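Annotators were shown the component list below and the corresponding predicted structure, then asked to write short factual statements about the assembly.
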Amino acid sequence: MKKIIYTALLLLVTVSCDKWFEAEPKGGGQSGAKVFDNEASFRDYMNGIYAGLRSADLYGSNLTLGGVEFLAQSFVPYAGAEAWSKMDFNSDMAREIAREAYAKLYAAIYQCNDILGLFAEKRDVDFIDGSREMMVAEARGLRAFLHFELLKLYSPAYAADNAASNILWMEGTQPKGTQMTTAQLTDKIVTELEAAAAELAKYDPIVTGVSYDDMSLLGASPIDRVWKLNYYGCLAAEARARMSRGTAEDFGKAYGLLTKIIDEGGYAFVRTVSGTDYEFSAEFIFALPSPETGFCALSEELFTPAPDGKGVTLSPRLDIDDLHADDRRRNWFDADNTMRTKFAPTSKIDKWKTTPAIPMIKIGEVYLLAAEAAAKSNQLPAGIGQFNDFMVQRNSESMKLPETATQAQLMEAIGKQYQYEFMGEGVRYHFCKRLNQTITAYDGSQITEVGKKAFPIVK
Amino acid sequence: MTKPLQTNERKLPGGISAVRLLRPLAFPAVVSVMLSMSPSTVFGQGDTSGHEDFVRDNCRTESAAAAEAGYSGEELRKLHPTDLMRALQLIDPSICGTDPQEQYGSDPNAVPAAMSLQGVKSFAWGLSSADARPLVIVDGHSESFDRLKDFDMQRIASVTLLKNATATALYGVRAGQGVIVITTKVPENKRLQLTYNFDGTFQRASMRAFDLMDAGQKLDWEKRMGAYDGNDALYQQRMADVKANGSTDWLDMPLRTSFSHRHRVTVDGGDSSLRYRGVLYMNPVKGVMKGSKRTMYGASAFIGYTTRKLQISNELSVDMADASESTYGPMYGWARMNPYYAPADERGVPYDILGEGTFSEQQSPLYETSLNSFAENKISRVNNNLTLRWKIDEHFSVAGQFNLTHDYDKRSEFVSPQSLVYKDYGIDEIDQKGSYRILRNRLESYQEKVWADYRLERERHTLRASLGMEVYAATMTDDAFRGVGMSSDHMDYISFAQRYAAERPEGTKTYERVLSGYGIVSWSFDETLFVDLSGRVDKSSMLAPDKRTAGSYGLTAAYDLKKALMGNSGLIGRLMLTAGYGSTAGYQFDYGFANPLYGYDIDNPYLNGMGENKNRIDYNKGLVTFYNMNAYNPALKWKTTRNVNVGVSGRISTVDIAVSYYNTLSKDLLTLEEQNVAFGSGYRYANSGAIRNSGVEFSVAAGILRNRSGVDLTLFAKGVANRSKITELPGYSAETFNTANFENGYHSGMAEGDAADGIYALRSAGIDPATGREQFYLRDGSVSFDPTAADLAYQGSMTPKLRGTFGATAAYRNFDFAAVFSYSLGGKFYDLYTQQAVDLAGYADNVPTAAAGKWSPSNQNAAYQGVGNASEYASSRFVSKRNTLSLASLRIGYAFPKRIASVMRMQALKVSLTCDDLWYSSSVKSPRSLYYPYASSFILSLQATF
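Structure shown to annotators:
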C-alpha cells in the first residue's frame, strides 16, 4: 500500500502537466514568451532588432556619420576628435565608442539568436505561407551580417592578419560562443549568408514580387523590403565578405553576385533632381529608417558652426570640382564647405523630425565592388566597363576610364569614387582597411597600414 | 536590456506587498528584520499537543518540536493582549534593532516588508522580495503574511517558530525563510458557554528624541551662520514675531492620545461527537497620529463532528478591516518646520506657504491636513478550511484538508486640488489638479493536502509514518488607475475626476503553483530516544524552468537523558539532548530572473514617417517594435539552506536551562556574475553566493520563591548571539552593489568575509577647517575630498552581539505580575537622521540642537559640515555602537474568585492591565522612528465567561 502511494506521488510530482507550472505573469507592459503565439509578435520582434541598430552607438551615429566617417578622413574633426580621426583607438573617446558598439552589436546578435530559437520552438504558430521561412532566413542573414560588422571593426583586415582571433561566433542564446580566427569566421559568414540568400530567393517578396500583406506598412511588400536585410542585401553582404577574403575564386563569385543585383534587382541611380531627397533613397538596397530625430539632427549638430554646433567642415583633400557639373552628388556639398544638404530634412513640418534614412548598402557600392571584383578575377575589361557604367549613371562621364586602363588605375579611380559616393556613410574606412592602404589624413599626414587598425575590445 | 540593480523597478512584482507598499522611502532600504532568534521555551513550557481529536496538520514531528521554539496563546496574550506581532517580538525578543521597520514605529497599518529568523540569509541588495518573509501556516494551511498583522489573539492556541532547516524541510520550498506555525483553539467538550473579552487601550506617543531647536535658538543659529547677512530687517522682524507669538511646537500637532476598545464574543461548546463555536469581534484601533486608524471586525464559525471512524471539521472566517493613514504625513516632515513660524492666522486658518520669498520658505504640512486629502484601505478576507480524517483501523488513517482563501484590499488615495503639490500648475493645467487613485490587490488561493498516517507500537518501539501530497495554487492580481481634474476640495470620489491621468494604468497578475509530496518517519524507543526523518519534494511555478523541482530533508533526534540514566534523581527534573541536520530549499528570485520578458518599445517605432499617409507625416507612428527586456538564466537554482543544530535543555532543582547552538549555511544564493558582452549582456544571474549564520541561544528561568506564603516568583533571562558571514560572493556583485550605494550616499554594501548586514561607509578624516567640507581616508591612507567606491570600508554588523529579554513573573493568590525588559548590545547603527538633519542641513529647515556644531568661518573646528558645501557620502562619523534597554512589557492580572464571579452570574472573570513599551533607553541619541512615532500602550483587558 505504502509503495503504491509513494509511486503515485512520485509520478504526480515528476510527470504532472508541465503547462500548469508555466504560469506566466502579466503586467507592467511586459510579457513572457507566450506572446509569441502569432505571426505579428515575430514581426514586431524583427522590427525591434532593426530599430535597435539605429541607436546612436551603432548606425545612428558612431558607426556612420558621427564616428567611423571621420576615419575616412572626410572631415576636419572637431576639438577632441582628432586622435579618433587619426585612428588612435586608445583615446577615451575611441574606447567609449568601441565598448558601446561591441555590446550593442552583440546584443543585436543575441536577439537574432533569440528569435531563431523562438521560431524553432513555436512550430505550431500559423504564418502566412512563406513568411516564417523568410523571417528565419532574414534573421540568419542578419546574424552573419552583424558578425561581419564586428569583424571589420574589431579585427585587423583579412589581408593584414587573418589569424587574429578577436571575435566570437555566437549561435544560440546560451552563454557560450566559438572563438574563431578571422579566416575561419569569414568562411562561416560566407556560408551563412549563402544559405540565407538561397532561402530568401524563394520567399522574399522583393524576388517573388508578391506581398505577404496588403498593408504595405507591415514591411512585407517588395517596396518595403529595403528596410530589412532582403535578398539583394544578403547577396551584397556576401560579396563584401568574399572580397575581404580575396581569393581569385572569391572575386569571381562576388562578381557573379554583384552582377546579379545589377541585372535583376531593378535598382536605378538618381540622375535628375528628385525633389528634396538628396540622399537618393531610391538607390538604397538595405537601409534603416531614421529614428524620430536622426541623421538630419546629427548632421546639423556636426556642421553648424560653433558655438551652436561642432563646426565640422569637409577635409581639404577632397576636390569636388573633379565631379561633372551634372553629377547629382555635387548637391551634397554646400558653399560653406560642409555637407548639410545631404541629410537635410525633406520636410519642415517639425524641425529635425525627418525621413532621411541610414543607408547600409547602396547600389553605388555594388557597382564599385563589381568593377573591382571583375578586375581581380581576370576580367579587367569587364571591370572597367562596370566602372564606366557607374560614372555614366552618375552623370560624370568625364571621369570614365579608357578601355586600356590598368588594374592599378582602375583601383585608384574606384578609391576616389569611394570618397564621394559614401560621404557621411562610414563606408570608405572599411574599403581602405580591406585593402590595407596607406591614406592621407585630413591634415596631410600619412596613416600607414590601415588594415592593421582595429577597435579595442573594452570590458 | 535591464541593468543590474534596476531589476527591482522593472520586474513583475512577486507578490501583493510589492504594490501595497506605497510609502515614499526617502531612506535606503536596509536588509531584513530579524524577527526571532529566541531560545527554547522556558517562559512556560508550551503545551501544543492538546488537540488530538481534531487533527489539522501532520507536518510536525516530536523531536523537531523539542528543538523549536513554541509558545502558548496564553503566554503570548500575557505579553500583548491584542497584537500578535508585538507579542512575538517580545517573546522571541529580537525584532528590535536594525530594521527599517523601526521607522514605522507604532503605525497600526504598517506590516514588515522583510523578516528573517536566525540571521540574515540573503544579500543586502534585495534583488527580489521572494524570500523576504517567513511562511505563515495557520492550522496546516498557509496564509498571507499581511494577515498576521490583524490576527485575532484570542483564537491562538499556540505559535511555533520554525527556524532550523530540520524543521522547515517539511514545508519545503515555500519555507526557505522559516515558518511561523499558528495553531488555533478547538472548542472543548463542555456545555454551551459564552465568553466576552474586552480590551481598552490608551496610547501615548513619545517624541522627545528629536531634540529640536526652539524659535530663539534657531534664529540665533541662522544669524550666527550668516543667513541674515545683508538682510537684518528680516531677522528683526522674525524676532519680533517670535516675541509676540512664541515658539511653535510643530511636532506636537500631528499627535494625539488615542483610546481604542475591542470587543469579542464567543459562544462555544460541544459533546463527544459535536463541537461548535461562533465568534464575533470588533477591534477599532486608533493610532497616535491623528487620523490613523485600523478598524477590524469579523466573524467565524467552527463546527466539528466525530464518530469512531470519522472526523470532520470546518471553519469559516470572514474578516474585514477599514484602515486610514494619517494625513499628517511622516514625522520628519514636522520636525523640519521652523519654530519661528506661526502655523495659522488669528482665526485659526493655517497658512499654506510660510516665509514666502525668504531663504527659509516652507510649505506647511498643517495646511495639507486642513484639506480633504486621504488614503484609506478597505480589506476583506474570507477563509474556509475543511478537514476530514478517516481512521481505517488502529494503525492506519487517511486525512485531507481543503482550504480556500480570498483576500481583497482596495486602496483609495485622494489628493485635493488645493494641495501644494499643484502649487506651480498654470491656468491651462487646471484640469490636471487633484488626483484620485484606486489600487486593488487580490489574492485567491486554493490549497489541498491529503495524507496517510500509519502508527505501530511494538513493545518498547513506536513507529509513525506519514505520506502526503499538497497542492497550492494562488493568483495575485493587482491593478491601479488614477483620475485627475477635480475642481473642488470636496470632490473626493473617483467619479468627480475629469479624465484618466496621463500615465498608463498599472496592473499585474502573478501566479504561484506548487505541487508537493512529503513523508515523515518517526521512531521512538522506550519514550527515551526519538528519531525523525522527513523529506519533501516541491515542483513550483516560482522556480526556474530548467530547475523546477526542489528537494528538502531533515533528520532530527532527541534523547531523554534523565529518563535513560538518572530516573531517580530528585535534583534533575528533566534533561534532554537534541540534534538535527537538514536542508531546506527556498525561493529567492522572481519570474524575470529565470524567464524571458518582452516589452513593446512605444517610443521607438520602426518605419516611422515612412507610411503612405497622404495628409501628414507622423513621425511618432510606425511599426510596433518588440524587444527582449532582461538577461535571464533559465537554470537558476533555488536557495539551499543547510543547518546543523544541537541543544540541551533541562531542569535542575527549580531552575530551567536551555542552550542551543546552530550553524546554517545558505548557499546557491542569487548573485550577479560578469560575463563576456558577446553573450548578449555583460552580466548574468548565477547561484554563486553563500552566507553562514551561526549562533547560540540560551534561556534561564529560576523559580526563586515557590508558594512561600502564597507567592511564586520566577526570574528569567533569554538571549541570542548570532554571527553572519558572507562566505562566497563574486567580486562583480559586490562591486556593482557597492558602487551604486556609494554614488547614492547609502551606507549598505557587501563583501566576502563581512557580515551579511554590514554597514559600509567612508573613513572620515574630519571636517576640513578651511572649507567646512568633510575629508576621507582613501584606501592608500591618503586624505581626499573625492573618494571612490573602492574607499568604502566595512564598519561592522547591524546585528547586536547579544540581544534578548529578562525579567520576572510572579503570582500571589489571585494576582499575577510580569515585567519584561528587552536589551540589545553591540549592534552597529548608522545615524541617518543626524546626517540628513544636521550634517547636510541648510538654513531652510529647522535643525536639532546639535547643529550648533556645524562648521562656519567662525567655528572651524566643527563636528558637522558647513552649509552648502557638504559632501553627501556615507561617513564613518555617523556609525556607532548601539546598546538599548527597554521596559517592554509590564503586567498585572487578577482572577476573581469563583464565588464573586458567580454573584455576578459568571463562571469566571479575569482582569489585567498590560503596559507596553513604557520606557526606552539607547546609547544613540537619535529619534527611533522618523515616519510614525512609537507609542506607550496601556491595555486594560477583561474576560468574562458566562
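Statements collected:
1. Chain B touches chain A through 69 residues (CB under 8 Å).
2. Chain B has a mean pLDDT of 85.
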